[in-house]
Amino acid sequence: MYTQALNTKETLRPVAPEDMEREARFQARIDAEEKIEPNDWMPEGYRRTLARQISQHAHSEIVGMLPEGNWITRAPTLRRKAALLAKVQDEGGHGLYLYAAAETLGISREEYVEQLLSGRAKYSSIFNYPTLTWADIGAIGWLVDGAAIMNQIPLCRCSYGPYARAMIRICKEESFHQRQGYEIMLTLCRGTPEQKAMAQDALNRWWWPSLMMFGPSDKDSQHSDQSMRWKIKRFSNDELRQKFVDATVPQGLYLGLTFPDPDLKFNEATGHWEFGEIDWSEFKNVIAGNGPCNKQRMKQRRKAHEEGAWVREAALAYAQKRKARREQRAQAA
Ligand code: BYC
Q1: pTM summary value
Q2: Residue 2 binned pLDDT confidence (cut-offs 50, 70, 90)
Q3: CA end-to-end span of the chain, whole Å?
Q4: I need a labelling partner for 259 at 20 to 30 A (CA). Which of 20, 81, 110, 160 fits?
């Protein structure tokens, strides 16, 4: 999918005055909706922004496997287990496409993984909340994947080619994830009063964290303006959050559920659902590493990484053996 000949680290240097003309040409390409490819010249800030966003996105997919993976052995039926297993595998795959796209920016996957494991890189706030009941699996699919799609569909038109192309496949899979989640919620809501109460409890706990997934409000978002100029982002955090609320509230009402927001009301004049104030102190606390499950998630990731060392070593030894054999054959010929 991507070119193999990557720009080297030597090209990572601050923008010099003579680069201003190149920068203007670069912006003109962006404005003309051309895709930027790995070996094209790009401003250092563009490269850094993409490396940060794509790798954080990859980390989110990988850490995102944990809260749901937790329920694979406890899924209520074989059909539910098969669907959940496939979904969690898809997330692993998304992480891999995204690390591959991020590597085209000249930083190795090992380095990105190290940034995650050492706590220097962020991953989505949402994965620091616990999955307490089976209904949480429904709520994650419906709300978390629903929010993810809302944010990710515009990324299919991102100006950086490898990221945009990776997002096309990811979005197709996310759409299946969202539907399987909504179907779990629908089944619970049409079930016994206890099952419906479980669905309501899951909505109560996941609603506000799902709204936080879109990031800080526009006035507090550090990167949005520049990322919009570079067409990495196509919509602001608040615009996407509003689109999500408008799409999701009718779905929740159809389920017969109540949203945990007394200020939620439909504004006939604007055609939008108005919602209450997000608790930004909670968001800041979670991204600072102090959410309910941050420590547990990172501990699990570090353990999985350590336990996977033998796989990496074996793959490397096998690749070396094949290379040596090829060289021997070439010498013999
Ligand atoms: N959580 O200036 P801003 C999934 C950080 S995975 C944590 O608005 P930007 C799925 C932000 O990084 C979902 N941190 O930033 C997987 C920045 O900090 P740094 C992941 C957050 O980048 C499995 C600071 O706050 N999706 O879908 O312009 C199962 C200021 O923010 C969050 C993606 O990664 C957050 N929620 O906009 C199910 C999508 N929000 O880096 C589902 C790609 C903000 O300066 N990413 N921060 O230290 C994006 O679209 C953008 O990066 C964001 C933030 C909208 C998230």
Answers
A1: 0.92
A2: very low
A3: 33
A4: 81
36 secondary structure, DSSP code = B
Tokens for 85?
A: 């297993």
CA distance 170 to 158: 14
Where does ligand 1 bind, in terms of residues with CB under 6 Å? 52-53, 56-57, 60-61, 64, 91, 122, 124-125, 144-145, 148, 151, 212-216, 221-224, 227, 237, 287
Label residue 17 by pLDDT band (50, 70, 90). Answer: low
Report CA(94)–ligand 1 centroid distance (Å): 16
- In angstroms, the CA 63 to CA 297 distance is 7
Q: How many whole angstroms from 71 Cα to the centroid of ligand 1?
A: 25
